[in-house]
Amino acid sequence: MCNKKEKIATEETVDANIDVNTAAVLASVSTGVGFSQLEESLSVLNVPCMSYITYAVNHSKISEKICETAWKCMEGGKEEARLARECGEIDEDGYPLITVIGDGAWCKRSN
User: Fold this and answer.
1) Cα distance between residue 34 and residue 62, in whole Å
2) Full DSSP string of 22-81
3) What is the DSSP letter of 85?
4) pTM for this model (two decimals)
5) What is the dihedral of CA 87, 88, 90, 92, to 10 degrees?
6) Long-range contacts of 22-28 (CB under 8 A, 24+ apart)
7) Which residues does residue 90 pair with via DSSP β-bridges, in sequence order?
8) Other CB atoms closer than 10 Å to residue 25's CB: what's the count?
9) Average pLDDT rounded to a whole number, residues 44-66
10) How many CB atoms lie within 10 A of CB 29?
11) At CA 87, angle to CA 68 and CA 69, rounded to 5?
12) Band of residue 104 on the pLDDT scale cut at 50, 70, 90
């Protein structure tokens, strides 16, 4: 009734305005499909698809960002390993006993 809209975020947000082609390639990578599956899905929706070359260029850029992010996430693992060693939580070979879960951005459950 007051025409007021409010957006509440549960985590820190960043300006993620990306073009539609980059977003489509990111969706493909995140769901574990490639160019052919994206092209087929868009054709069912009667939406023109980018060329394979455009897909490949965007895929390369996205892959670099995913790799950078993965390495940043590994810093937390190094800290966990250090803490485990300090607490004596290591196996007979001196490896820290910590749980690490990673799924490489594929759309499937990690256990």
Assistant:
1) 13
2) HHHHHHHHHHT--HHHHHHHHHHTT-PPPPHHHHHHHHHHHHHHHHHHHHHHHHHHHHHH
3) H
4) 0.58
5) 180
6) 22/58, 22/61, 22/62, 24/50, 25/55, 25/58, 25/59, 25/62, 26/62, 28/55, 28/59
7) 96
8) 26
9) 94
10) 19
11) 5
12) low
- Quote the CA–CA distance of 111 and 64 in Å, as a whole number: 26
Q: Tokens 């485990």 sit at which residue?
A: 84
- pLDDT band for position 111 (cuts 50, 70, 90): very low
Question: Residue 90 corresponds to which amino acid?
Answer: I
Tokens 């060693």 label which residue? 85
Structure token digits, residue 75: 């810093």
Q: Which two tokens stand for residue 65?
A: 């960002």
